[in-house]
Structures are given as C-alpha cells and as structure tokens.
Amino acid sequence: MGRAFEFRKGRKMKRWSAMAKTFTRIGKDIVMAVKEGGPNPDANSRLRAVIQNAKAANMPKDNVERAIKNASNKDTANYKEILFEGYAPHGIAILIETASDNNNRTVANIRSYFNKCNGTMGTQGSVDFMFDHTCNFRIPKGDLDPEELELELIDFGAEEVFEDEDGILIYAPFGSFGALQKELENRGIEILSSGFERIPQITKELTEAQIADVEKLIEKIEEDDDVMNVYHTMKEE
C-alpha cells in the first residue's frame, strides 16, 4: 500500500469535530460552490460533490436545500479560502486550511494559537512544499475490483486505489479531480463522497509528551470556526 493508504489509516481514529461543526463546514462549502458556479448541481460539479458529502455526513436534505437557496442571496457572506503555515513544537510542520469572511480576524486567531502553544507561524510557502495536495473519491465496493479499477483510471490521474470497510477509495493529484469525477459519473459509478487532502511527504516520530504538546496546538486550531482542515507531519499510528 502507498502513502495515501497509510495516511488514511493513521487519521481514521483521530477526532473529527462534532456533527454540528461538520454541518457548518459543509454549509461553507455550499456557499463557495454556489457563488463560484451557480445553484444548479447538474451544471456545477463542485456543488454536486458537496451535496454528495452532505449526504455522506447525514446532513438533512432540507438543510442542504436551504443552504443552496441562502447562498444564492447576494447578501450572503462570501468566504475566501486561506492557507496558513507554521511549526508546532518539536519541529512539526502544520498546514491549516480555512474559509473566512474576515481575513483579519482569522489571521489574528491563528497567530494567537501558535503563540500560546509555543509554535511559530510561518510565511507563505514555508511548509506547503512538504505536503502532496491530493483529491479523493469514495465509491461503493459492489462488484468492483480495486486493482482492475486502478488500471482503468490511471489515464484519468488515479495513483492509488484501495478498499476499506466503507468502500473503495481513489486517490489522485489535486488537479485530477474534475477528470476523475467526470469519468466515474460517465461509468455510472456512485460517488459516496469526495474531497481534498494534503498528505505529508515525510513524518516525524515523537514521544508521548511531545505528542501532547503538538496535540494541544492542533486542538486549539481545530476549535476555530474558520478552520476547515489541519494537516501535520507528526507520525500517527
């Protein structure tokens, strides 16, 4: 198995924020997708993907439809995606994806978390190069063979295809998202969920005490309403 498999296995048992925050994140994704490509999912591939993710997270259909309607309102806040970089204690690189309607607030908050937890906020590009930006799709297992599917999807960017208890996962570079989404849809394969992740190229092993130091910073960052995802180079079992 490759790095995507190990990355997914390591994160599987890690915390994911409460359901209410998951819905909030999906709501922001809907707003950004609608403002970018309109409210019709048939003509907006990004919105189509977000709706699939909402379904996978058991977000009520009424909530999704309401979010799409609200996002079409010109007075709805427009979220901007901002990437923050820095170092946690013990040399662990941290990459933070945010979606914010107030950049000054988000910058101030993220900087305060680093300062309070003995970390260092970095400049643009300071740690981004340590992570591979990937896209992924989860599909039902059905009668599909992961190895055969991988061979068939290589031309569309697929780099790693593997099975877990929830179905089949397909990983590819960030830029291959559109081509893979279109090919899966053309084949009539149901997409259960999809998304983007940043996989560390190298990870660092820490002691239990050091892990606690890093976790303290990560937890503070993840509690922020503007934060969508946090990635790091700490080795996870």
From TrEMBL:
Superkingdom of the organism of origin: Bacteria
Domain TACO1/YebC-like second and third, first and last residues per copy: 79-234
Domain TACO1/YebC-like N-terminal: 4-73
InterPro entries attached to this UniProt entry: Integrase-like_N, TACO1_YebC-like_2nd/3rd_dom, TACO1_YebC_N, Transcrip_reg_TACO1-like, Transcrip_reg_TACO1-like_dom3, YebC-like
Cross-referenced Gene3D superfamilies: 1.10.10.200, 3.30.70.980
Single GO BP term: regulation of DNA-templated transcription
SUPFAM superfamilies associated with the record: YebC-like
Alphabetical keyword list: Cytoplasm, DNA-binding, Transcription, Transcription regulation
Molecular-function GO term, any one: DNA binding
Localization, UniProt: Cytoplasm
GO cellular component: cytosol
NCBIfam families: PRK00110.1, PRK12378.1, YebC/PmpR family DNA-binding transcriptional regulator
Sequence similarity: Belongs to the TACO1 family.
Protein name in UniProt: Probable transcriptional regulatory protein OIU80_05975
Lineage summary: Bacteria, Pseudomonadati, Bacteroidota, Flavobacteriia, Flavobacteriales
